[in-house]
């Protein structure tokens, strides 16, 4: 989890003010409860956009399967507010992670199975914790974005940090690069402020990360 956050240049928010600045800048979005999930003891109800999408989708399925709302117990948590037993490499300060209250019985079996299946696809990493009992889930924004788009055909927002540099090679076109990175020519033009589709070998552009 920490390697993903570091390699994708995600920002580790150090203070409460830093979190507020991240919200004001649009990097973090509010996580508000609905019929499918509720928040319990969440001091900073903000996450990255793809993480919010993950919560909404998982909670809808959970509610249908279990007949009760899923409970989120933690979202972004600045470094200055980390608990004493947290690891120095916690990714909670980035907003990619959430904690889920551990349910019982068939709901626990269901949640374990779904998280395990999603983890196998490489879109999340989930850890079952025991003190206190909860699931810690980090959502890998770019792989999860592509997973959702394949599943539903909708576009999912990702964090600005989930990009990498690509050097144009001979024979490249914006179309071929967009196909390779699972995006569109229009999105590449927007990401790089390009007024046309003309590119030159040796030129460096920004592309979605996670490859």
Could you explain the architecture of this structure?
This protein has 211 residues and is of the alpha+beta class. The protein has 7 helices and 9 strands; from the N terminus they run ααβββαββαββαβααβ. The protein has helices at 2-7, 16-24, 49-66, 105-120, 141-152, 174-180, 185-192; strands at residues 29-30, 37-39, 46-47, 70-74, 97-101, 124-130, 133-139, 163-167, 204-208. The strands form 3 sheets. A 5-stranded mixed β-sheet has the order 2-4-5-7-6, covered by helices on one side. A hairpin with a 2-residue loop joins β6 and β7. It starts with a helix and ends with a strand.
The beta-strand count equals 9
Mean pLDDT: 87
- Radius of gyration based on Cα positions: 18 Å
How much of the residues is beta strand, in percent? 15-25%
What's the shape?
globular
What share of residues is helical?
25-40%
Unreliable spans are: none
- The spatial strand order of the largest sheet comes to 2-4-5-7-6
Succession of helices and strands:
HHEEEHEEHEEHEHHE
Largest sheet: 5 strands, mixed
Distance, first to last CA: 16 Å
Q: How many DSSP H or I helices?
A: 7
SS-derived structural category? alpha+beta
Oligomer: single chain
């Amino acid at each position: 989890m920490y390697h993903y956050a570091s390699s994708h240049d995600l920002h580790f928010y150090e203070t409460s003010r830093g979190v507020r600045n991240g919200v004001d800048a649009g990097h973090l979005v509010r996580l508000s409860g609905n019929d499918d999930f509720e928040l319990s003891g969440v001091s900073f109800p903000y996450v990255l956009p793809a993480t919010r999408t993950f919560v909404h989708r998982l909670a809808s399925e959970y509610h249908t399967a279990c007949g009760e709302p899923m409970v989120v117990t933690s979202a972004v948590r600045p470094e200055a507010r980390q608990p004493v037993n947290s690891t120095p490499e916690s990714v909670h300060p980035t907003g990619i992670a959430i904690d889920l209250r551990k349910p019982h019985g068939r709901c626990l079996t269901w949640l374990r199975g779904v998280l395990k299946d999603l983890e196998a696809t490489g879109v999340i990493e989930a850890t079952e914790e025991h003190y206190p009992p909860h699931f810690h889930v980090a959502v890998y924004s770019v792989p999860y974005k592509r997973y959702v788009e394949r599943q539903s055909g909708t576009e999912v927002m990702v964090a600005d940090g989930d990009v990498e540099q690509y050097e144009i090679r001979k024979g490249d076109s914006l179309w071929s690069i967009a196909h390779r990175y699972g995006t569109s020519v229009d999105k590449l033009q927007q990401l790089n402020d390009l007024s046309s589709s003309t590119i030159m070998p040796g030129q460096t552009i920004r592309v979605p990360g996670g490859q």
